[in-house]
Write a structure and sequence with these properties.
Distance between the termini: 152 Å
Strand order of the largest sheet: 1-3-4-2
Structural class: mainly alpha
Shape: elongated
Helix content: 55-70%
CATH superfamily of one domain: Winged helix-like DNA-binding domain superfamily/Winged helix DNA-binding domain
Strand content: 5-15%
Number of strands: 4
Order of helices and strands: EHHHEHHEEHHHHHHHH
Radius of gyration: 45 Å
CATH topology of one domain: Arc Repressor Mutant, subunit A
Oligomer: single chain
CATH class of one domain: Mainly Alpha
Number of helices: 13
């Protein structure tokens, strides 16, 4: 649907629904809670920048029930990609919480920037009558569609029923589903009934902890070690939440810290054995090999000759003392014999 320039000018000049700041805040929280209900648990896992952009979109829609700023505007304001904004708005549109229209482009006859009308805003009924929105064409019905056939043709026998996509969870065979996709069999059997679909996110935190522990030591762990530590970490989390209530984000942080500590303990002894022993190397005596002047060489030779003479003198004195001692001993023996 196209919104022409005169209609868009009337939209901008229309009276605001919120008169005070308190009313504007209440309306923003109302629209924001609607967005959180659409995303469910995944809303807490969105990036803070994305949540801030959603908060700004809800704030701009409080006055007149629509937002006409471009996706690139929100992307530049909050440092995210325009594709992220489009993906968020598409999710809300598929859930039937907003209706999308387009302004007529001033450069060509085609569509321009998108305008999003919030279904939960009180002014939505007015915009529906003014523009003639076919709400059933935009909003998907929550009930399953019943297939119909033309009256001219005979009714065909169909072997199956047309069931909605969420029939599996209400089916009596739902509890016998063997495993949650992406989670090992051992952990599925032990914790599937306790954590349901959130078990996949908890196991993902354990895998992230194993990757961080392996990066610090440049090694890989076996699947058996990862599965056993994942089982122990989730079991510790289960015993912990029995005594106190925790949000899902806090549970993910806790199981990540538990698993990271266990992986570090597993890797630490191997890291110690791999350390090489440090060898103490004594410094070598530096021998100078540069050229010396002739006068220095002559002085060194003179000192060496003096040292050699002194050593010879000391040796001769010792020999003379030994000889004198032997002579004295001989004289003593002769005197003793005469007596």
């Amino acid at each position: 649907m196209l919104i022409f320039s005169n209609d868009f000018a009337r939209m901008q000049n229309y009276e605001s629904y919120t008169k005070t700041q308190n009313e504007q805040k209440q309306m923003k929280y109302k629209l924001l809670s609607m967005v959180e209900s659409v995303f469910g648990d995944s809303y807490a896992r969105l990036k803070p920048e994305t949540r801030n952009a959603i908060d700004m979109i809800c704030f701009l829609a409080t006055e007149k029930g629509f937002v006409y700023a471009k996706d690139t505007y929100f992307a530049e304001k909050h440092d995210i990609s325009a594709r992220t904004i489009r993906r968020v708005m598409k999710t809300l549109e598929e859930a039937g919480k907003i209706v999308k229209a387009h302004r007529s482009s001033s450069k060509h006859n085609g569509r321009g920037a998108a305008v999003y009308f919030f279904v939960n805003h009180p002014y939505f009924a007015y915009w529906t009558t003014y523009f003639g929105f076919d709400v059933q064409a935009y909003v998907q019905a929550e009930n399953a569609e019943i297939p119909c056939e033309s009256k001219d043709e005979e009714a065909k026998k169909v072997s199956t029923y047309s069931l909605p996509n969420n029939y599996i969870k209400d089916h009596f065979m739902y509890k016998t589903i063997p495993f949650i996709k992406g989670v090992p069999k051992l952990i599925n059997q032990a914790f599937k009934d306790m954590f349901k679909e959130s078990l996949r996110d908890l196991y993902l935190r354990v895998r992230m902890a194993s990757q961080k522990a392996c990066q610090s030591v440049s090694m890989t762990l076996s699947k058996k070690d990862i599965h056993s530590i994942a089982y122990e970490s989730i079991h510790v989390l289960f015993t912990y939440i029995k005594t106190r209530s925790m949000s899902f984000e806090e549970q993910c942080k806790l199981v990540y810290r538990i698993a990271l500590n266990k992986f570090n303990e597993l890797v630490q002894p191997e890291d110690k054995t791999n350390k090489k022993e440090t060898v103490v190397v004594t410094p070598r005596k530096i021998v100078r090999k540069e050229m010396l002047p002739d006068w220095f060489k002559a002085q060194q030779e003179q000192e060496q000759t003096i040292k050699s003479k002194e050593s010879v003198c000391t040796e001769s004195e010792e020999e003379e003392m030994a000889r004198m001692k032997t002579i004295l001993s001989q004289y003593r023996e002769e005197l003793d014999s005469l007596c």
